Amino acid sequence: MRPLIAVLAIGATIALGAHLAADGPRTGPEPGTKTPSYPLWAAISVDNPVIGPQAVKPVAMTFALVNDSDKTIKPETDESTLIINGKVFPAHPSWPVLIGGLKSRDQDALPPHEYVVFGWQIEKYFQEPGIYRVSWKGKQFQSGEIVLRVLPRKK
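The chain above was modelled as a monomer; its predicted structure follows.
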């Protein structure tokens, strides 16, 4: 009986892998979901999703934009907002440190098929213990939501 189960499991794994490979990587939203269409792909991440009670450094967030189109697009990141637990906060006036992609911080024009990645250390938005749902939105993009948690300080 065990050999039959092993053969079935291997067969199912091969069939699933072939199905996924035929589909290729997903470049958009999951089928059946309604998501606004933006010309730029955006993502955010955080260095640590749990901020412990002894944390001494601010939350380090990474922001990324990819221009999948065939035309140059102005991302207008200076006019973008962070959405934290449903509340909108303006972008920081001194947008952050370039990490990768374009060779300058000049995000006035993102050429076709180029990307830019930059980081920002944020502390003022995550002072209180709790769960924070965060996304990043601009005129030409909107990231998915990330979740981080700030634990209470020990008494």
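The two ends are 57 Å apart (CA to CA).
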